[in-house]
Amino acid sequence: MTIEEIQKELIDEFSLFDDWMQKYEYMIELGKTLPIIDPKLKTDDRLIKGCQSKVWLHAELKGDYVVFTADSDAIITKGIVAILIRVFTNQKPEAILNANTNFIDEIGLKDHLSPTRANGLVSMIKQMKLYAVAYQAQLK
Amino acid sequence: MAFDVQKIRNDFPILQRKVNGYPLVYLDNAATSQKPQVVIDCIVDYYSNYNANIHRGVHTLSQEATDAYEMARKKIQTHFNIAHLHEVIFTSGTTHGINLVANGFSTLLNKGDEIIVSALEHHSNIVPWQMLCERSGAILKVIPINEEGVLILSAYEELLSEKTKLVFVNHISNALGTINPIKKIIEKAHAIGAAVLIDGAQSCSHIKPDLIDLDVDFYVTSAHKMCGPTGVGILYGKEDWLRKMPPYQGGGEMIKEVTFEKTTYADLPHKFEAGTPNICGGIAFGAAIDYLNSIGFNAIAAHEKMLLDYATKELLAIEGLKIYGTGSEKTSVISFNIDGIHPYDIGTIIDKLGIAVRTGHHCAQPIMDYFNIPGTVRASFSFYNTIEEVDSLVQGVIKAKLMLT
């Protein structure tokens, strides 16, 4: 699936809920599907700055595709990072770099996931794109 | 006069609003207080009727603004029981006051001198002293805490020596709410000739400190924690110290005479008040002090104690909930966690219910490291909070726990 298709899928899934509690409960459920980072890789250099909770993010290149794994000590943050990984994992670096992230507004979590919130959403996206830049250079 | 919390709440326009569809339950008072209408009116009145620069204009507006600003200084002197008016220095807030003293002492300390801070400090009362130690070669020592989040006084006494020049402690811990025995701390420091700075950022909304009685050398606080505006606060310093310390910033207002060869400095308090100050903020700080005194600090303390006791009892009834900061002397702050749940998750869920609390390390990472936790949820109550709001908090936390486990 392309990044756009996955984003569309997420928007459809979240449109089923009409109140914030259901959305949060679903996000918490999604957190449980997070591809968990190898505990050995939970090192300080893989921590994302700017989050109130701890988020470890790891990326590796498999063929032409970037594969992300992560973990967090907070459940809601785990849900946020799970959503992002679902969108960006197993994609080519170029696709990750070109992707826009408007879907966050469209799934109705804009208020909760806006850049001024202390959840580190923006830092997570930035870090994923930085990995994509590095792997793009490596592939060339 | 009987304490009528509903009547008091009508003084605060913001308390009438809704957040995320729920009535606002504002329990982040340790971060900043809300403002009563009289303070808001004072700000509007200043800018509407007598805004002018102070201390130098010959015109009427300037004189009116100067009078109001100096009247506020006088109110602050009376409120804190300060010996001399010129010992009241207006600052931009607590952090500014601390940095001003740290800077002043950089020329008064020698290599090997020791300064003591407590393990309960806010980062703003740690970092300036670390910077001072780097500049002066002085050594920083730390008073440890026990499991109740209370300073270990015997350890403090052991740290004191003839090398100790300065001691810095907060009056009340922002992260835990512990009230520190500052009078004892000051007496013991003075016995060996060290000066003491007390950070009053968290205390002055709950307690009316008597600075003559405390015999403290420096006391700093911020207006915004006391129903006043942000960006203004005070440094109290004993006259002798203020004369010994060099000016912090150069500029207008703080000079007597300027030539390119030499500048002589203005007398106290203006020596430390370079540039155009926060005139409106200073005047509104005075209005806030009047407002707090009209309610009365005894009434404030009694109401807040009632809220603290009730909230402590109700929160502890939630299984797995642990409170950090359990000393007998504490103010209306409850820092807590629920077993297995990150404080950020709880804060996020209850915000959706209109409840404002703080989550995280509260700019006091050493305390969190001591308890080996990433942070806490902190609910801090003010005199305008109600029993019903405590109930909302407790229900919110129970709901969050259900969602998160």
Note the main attributes of this structure.
heterodimer, A: 140 residues, mainly alpha, Sufe protein. Chain: A, two-stranded antiparallel ribbon, 7 helices, 2 strands, 51% helix, 11% strand, B: 405 residues, alpha/beta, Aspartate Aminotransferase, domain 1, Aspartate Aminotransferase, domain 2, 2 domains, seven-stranded mixed beta sheet, four-stranded antiparallel beta sheet, globular
Give a brief rundown of this model.
The complex is a heterodimer of chains A (140) and B (405). With 140 residues, chain A is mostly helical.
What gross morphology of chain A would you assign? Answer: globular
CATH class of the largest domain in chain B: Alpha Beta
Residue fraction in strands of chain A:
5-15%
Record field, number of beta strands of chain B: 17
The overall pLDDT of chain B, averaged over residues, is 94
**Mean pLDDT over the full residue set of chain A:** 88
Largest pleated sheet of chain B: 7 strands, mixed
Number of helices of chain B: 14
Q: What is the number of independent domains of chain B? A: 2
Q: Beta fraction of the residues of chain B?
A: 15-25%
- Give me the CATH fold name of chain A: Sufe protein. Chain: A
The CATH architecture of the largest domain in chain B comes to 3-Layer(aba) Sandwich
Termini separation of chain B comes to 47 Å
Oligomer: heterodimer
What's the N-to-C terminus distance of chain A? 24 Å
**Structural class of the helices, strands and pairings of chain A?**
mainly alpha
Question: In terms of structural class, how would the helical and strand content of chain B be classed?
Answer: alpha/beta
Helical percentage of chain B: 25-40%
